[in-house]
Write a structure and sequence with these properties.
By secondary structure, this protein is of the alpha/beta class. The protein folds into 2 domains: 237 residues, 3-Layer(aba) Sandwich (Aspartate Aminotransferase, domain 2), CATH 3.40.640.10; 135 residues, Aspartate Aminotransferase, domain 1 (Alpha-Beta Complex), CATH 3.90.1150.10. Helices cover 36% and strands 14% of the residues. The chain is built from 11 helices and 15 strands. A 7-stranded mixed sheet has the order 1-9-8-5-4-2-3, sandwiched between helices. Helix 1 crosses helix 7 and helix 8 packs parallel to helix 11. The longest helix has 22 residues. It is globular, with a radius of gyration of 21 Å. Bound molecules: pyridoxal-5'-phosphate. Pyridoxal-5'-phosphate (PLP) binds next to helix 3 and helix 4.
Length: 400
Amino acid sequence: MSTPSNPKGVPLLDLKAQYEQVGPQIEQLALSVLRSGHYILGAVGKQLEESVAEICGTKYGVGVANGTDALELALWAANVGPGDEVITPSFTFAATAEAIAMRGARPVFIEVDPVTFNIDPEAIKSLVNAKTRAIIPVHLYGQSADMEPIMAFAERFGLKVIEDNAQAIGATYKGKPTGSFGHMSCISFYPTKNLGAAGDAGMIVTDDAELADRLRALRAHGMRTRYYHDEVGINSRLDEIQAAVLMAKLPHLKEWNEKRNEIAKWYAQAFKNVQGIIIPQVALRRSHVWHQYTIRVASTGAGRAAINRDDLAKELAARGIGSMCYYPVPCHLQKAFSQYGYRRGDLPVSELLAGEVLSLPMYPEMQEWHVKTVVGAIQEIINARMVAGFVPAPSVVAPI
Ligand SMILES: *Cc1c(COP(=O)(O)O)cnc(C)c1O
């Protein structure tokens, strides 16, 4: 067991603790790759593509350099380009919208549901027009978006669906894995994700043989036969060393996700009597893989917390407890996307969440005392403010 540097503290995540568990297998596999002399698009990457496709309930996997490239390549393979619109939530990591912008298309930001943090399917209808080509739902924090109505809308309007499954590998919706619903689904193996490489890596999974073939060409300079370029592509490949790290970790993914679920239950239990904290909920017939355990520090109404999110994060840090706000500015208010003309007030739920969310320590090696330490600290901090009769200022949702 690893000991945090502050014995009473709890880090946001602890990748070293995971390495202690799987280090020998990783080192063995990585060493055999190093000794093989085959470093790009080899046998280990192929195994990984097959294994991840299987987890996602799809036929094909195409390994790429990272999750952002996976999104951009998926849009590319779907022929999304200038003049097209793609519907995606504003309340997500910016890479989702960035991939759309990189293709020259326009991200059309959709509101999210305040309980699941995912696309509100009801909002799709009012955003679809003749330019709409695709929808990218994001399975934020590890819980599936409401895929059935999303797929129904997509079918009705002839749209492609690309799942952003960067945070939810292993999660299910009505018994089927995330990644199995869309025409293509994108995964990130960024080190902090539930299945993380020792560097950057990503994958697109699909059931469509033609899309898989196009993606394989696009990730390697548009080549199907070496040095015969069918179209302009890019260089975005998942290397053999990263594939080895991921193959060594893969057998543990299910057990790690189950452990995260147990930790989430400890949190829910511990939070029972803490005022002003809204804990995350799992919607009916969905399983959550808890990439993040994200609370809302309520900022409005009678049930609001006696402290704002930013001050709570600061006080936790002072006690050696890690926390992080994913994400403090919704995409529609980011400077990077200002050319799309959104204004404050356009997506009130996304803006509210950006000022309230706080992700707490979550990693499979956590023990119950860690959870009790985190929640105990939050309870103490809030109690102290309540005694002081402090009225919190809301957290700042910055740009634009
Ligand atoms: C991590 C992440 C990405 C990007 O993946 P990278 O591998 O970091 O490029 C995209 N979307 C979401 C929701 C993510 O969490």
